Structure formats: structure tokens, C-alpha cells
Amino acid sequence: GLASIDFAWNNLSLIEPQVNEALAFTTDEDTDLRDDAALQLAELAHARGQITFAQQQIAALLARLQMTTTPAAAQKLANVLVFSAHLSLVVGDLENASRILETLDLEEHLPARILHSRLLTSQGKFYEAVLQLERLLPVAQEWRYTLEIKVLLSLAHAACREDLQARQWLQQALSQARSMGVVRLFVSEGEPLARLLRQLVPTLQEPALRAYAQTILRAFARPAEADGPGQASAAGLLVEPLSAQEQRVLRLLATGHSNREIAQELVVSVNTVKDHAKHLYRKLGVSNRLQAGEAARHLKLI
Length: 302
Fold this sequence. Notes:
mainly alpha, Arc Repressor Mutant, subunit A
């Protein structure tokens, strides 16, 4: 939809209103649409640098999807797990990213194989990453995957100090993306890609391609947070960060403690525990202790 297009164009300030407007027309039975919205909002939080915020959103979404048995939910679960692993790479938790990938069928799920290439790069296995990405490119059919693979190839070659190959792959990616106006995919790779792009721009002979590359460089210079804090919620899907006390309550809830036991442990009243539980349920987008437990597990609170 429009939100996906604006995300690709890096128009971050437009995404949340569009998602919220779409949610206004959904019902509780429209679970697929609401889960899609939750994922879009998590991706938006990631783009804005709100990594903990994104992780909480994804933990709640995983909790819901793992309790659904439809084929559509299974496919969506795989995509959400890949994004969860990506967030782990962002924060340097390579072990968790690897654990998540072990639960996925790398042969059948292209996004997981691409994410595995990212893991190899993060582990310093640059040549292995290059070989894997080169094998994936011919089988990638959707433009977003071919584009991502080319960008990752440029970064992997740069890490191998193969500057010529790095610039060639990046120029191929720019040539493919220019007609679509894609910006976010480049910006999301951060300073390593910006550095490579700055090296490439003076060598570009085609004026239109050079102007496009300069547009992307200007996007690197714009802080994502300039688009707004993105803290508004819609129908409980956009989670707020959990307070320290809410995290304590969640940890105890998820490990089977009753409200009275939690109150005794935290030296508060039972009513205070109930209030914290109500607030954290809303923030996580869950409705019971079982779902809260799943969310806590994905947040590594238990």
C-alpha cells in the first residue's frame, strides 16, 4: 500500500498516519491487516532508531502469530522472525540472530538466506557472504530482494577491501533503483554504505544517476527522528516502551506468579499490580498471561 511506497521513498513522517487511517476501518476479525500494520510500525520504529521500541512491537506480534495456525500466519511468522533476527544483528546480538535463523528453512525462505548473509558479514566471514549472495542473486525474483542483495554485495566486497567490485555492485543497485526512487533501502545500511556512496559519486558519468546518488546522500544527513517521534498508538498496535516496573511485573507474570505473589515480591498493592498488567497488556498488544509470556520470552525478560 501507500505506507510501503512511502517507506521505500524514506517518507517516514507519512507512514504512521496512513497505517492508523487504515486501522480505523478494520475490525477485531481483520487479524491479517492488523498484523501487517504492526510489522509496518515496527519497521518504522527501526528506521527511526527506536530499536527497543521495535523489538517490543515484534515480540508482541510474534506472540500473536505463534498462537495462529493458518498457512498465511505461518508465512507471516517466518518474515517476522527474519526481521526479529535483523534487529538482533543491529544491536550486536549475533547469537540470538543465529538461533532465530536455525528455526527457519533457509532453502525455502529467501529473506532468511539474505539475513544469513548479513550474519556472515557481521561475523567477519566476508568471502563466505559474497559467495552466498552471488548464489542468491539469480534466484531472487522480486526487485526488493535483488536490490538488497546487490547492496549487500557492495558492502561485503568493501569489507574485503575489493573497492572496484564494491563500487560496481553499488552502481548496479543505483541503476536498478533510480526509476523507482528507492531511498530507504540504502539509508538503512548506515555509514558503511554512505562512505561507499561518497566514493562512488565522483565516478558516475550519467547526470541523472549522479543526482539520484546525491539525493540518497542527503537522506543520510537527515536524522530519521526529524520525521517525528512516532509515539502515537492506534487500536493498541503501536506499543510504548515498557517502564522498568512494568518489565518486572511482566517477568513475574510470565513465570506463573499470581497477582498477590507479585504484589508481595514488589512490595506494592494487588490493585497496583493489576494496573501495571493492564498497561503492559495494552502496550504489547496482548490480552492474556499466555500471550504476555510469549512476548516476555521474545524480549528476553525470562
